[in-house]
Design a protein that fits this description.
The protein is an alpha/beta fold. The chain has helices spanning 9-18, 20-33, 42-54, 59-76, 81-98, 128-141, 156-169, 182-195, 212-229, 247-259, 278-286, 307-315; strands at residues 116-121, 146-150, 173-174, 200-204, 236-242, 264-268, 290-294, 302-304. It has an 8-stranded mixed beta sheet with strand order 3-2-4-1-5-6-7-8, with helices on both faces. Helix 9 packs across helix 10 (247-259). The chain is elongated and about 65 Å long. The chain starts with 8 loop residues before the first helix and ends with a helix.
Length: 317
């Protein structure tokens, strides 16, 4: 069974609904940007730059997109306003492709070595534990044997929440008492997963940014102890970001990429915001592939990211 069964019509409808606030905001701004114009000229490009920046795409990424469109306009000599949407979609999709944010099919299969170890990082409140629960559900639904590790021992609520998710999706959760050494929990979780021939083990970690040195040391220690059980672990360091925080998500990405070797992103809560452009900017600025997006509260609302479906949903009426 293909993980997430991506990309069905139901998934496309869910994505369209989840991005509706961003899409409506972008189209409203685009309409004003091209009002009274018949072709793409310098004024339209200036207005488009403002549209992208105010849609939380970010300044550097916006300038890259505008430069690409300028080259297209110069090459084609005359580009009418009706073509602007098509060019936008093509250039943004190409940008995501360059950043290795690939189609969902890239993420369906797991390596032969078991277990595949995922360490999940991110600040409190971004939907980290919920995302772990949903990932566990989808992996299990794809026929995988899943273990969870409750290594966020700083907050009792985090452990309790993960246990609830474990019960909900019927996967084991390895935990210790509150205040226990997170690395010890991670070690136990990976060792239990290996002993039980699990396919995937997902490790939750504490979401604190108050001290970057402590964060870096803690995450490094967790990585080191897991590697004693499974060499090369963690295979994936998944950073969870709250899309509704806009530019604040950029700062979080900056801090966590300094603290550990993040190689995948999940951007949540896109359904409740008009700031969906942050997906484009973060992928471009950090050169880390967006692997999942959250477009609602249901289990089916965590989707494997597909750049073409995302761009189409954002720029198609």
């Amino acid at each position: 069974m293909a993980l997430f069964n991506f990309f069905s019509k139901d998934k496309k409808d869910t994505l369209d609904q989840g991005l509706s606030k961003t899409r409506e905001s972008v189209f409203s701004k685009l309409s004003r940007a091209v009002m009274g114009k018949s072709k793409v000229d310098d004024e339209v490009l200036d207005n488009l730059e403002e549209v992208l920046i105010t849609s939380d795409v970010g300044v550097e990424t916006t300038l890259r997109i505008i430069e690409r469109i300028e080259q297209r306009v110069a090459k084609d000599k005359y580009v009418n306003i009706d073509e602007l949407n098509v060019i936008l979609k093509e250039e943004i999709a190409a940008l995501l492709a360059e950043n290795n944010t690939g189609p969902a099919a890239d993420f369906y299969s797991l390596p032969d070595e078991k277990p595949y170890v995922i360490m999940v990082v991110g600040v409190n409140g971004v939907g980290k534990t919920t995302t772990i629960g949903k990932l566990a559900y989808h992996y299990k639904n794809a026929g995988k044997k899943v273990f969870l590790g409750a290594a966020d021992t700083f907050r009792a609520a985090a452990v309790d929440q993960l246990v609830i998710w474990g019960e909900r999706v019927d996967v084991p959760v390895i935990k210790q008492k509150m205040g226990a050494d997170p690395a010890s929990v991670a070690y136990d979780a990976v060792a239990s997963a290996k002993a039980n021939q699990a396919d995937v083990v997902i490790i939750d970690t504490a979401g604190r940014l108050h001290n970057k040195i402590n964060l870096m040391n803690e995450l490094t220690k967790i990585r080191n102890v897991m590697q004693k059980v499974v060499p090369g672990a963690p295979h994936e360091v998944l950073l969870i970001l709250d899309g509704s925080t806009g530019q604040n998500a950029f700062e979080q990405a900056k801090q966590f990429t300094k603290a550990t070797e993040v190689n995948a992103l999940a951007i949540t809560k896109l359904d409740g915001t008009a700031k969906g452009g942050v997906v484009l900017g973060i992928s471009d600025q950090f050169k880390i592939p967006v692997k999942y997006i959250g477009v609602g509260e249901g289990l089916e609302h965590l989707q494997v990211f597909d750049r073409n479906a995302f761009v189409s949903s954002l720029f198609d009426r």
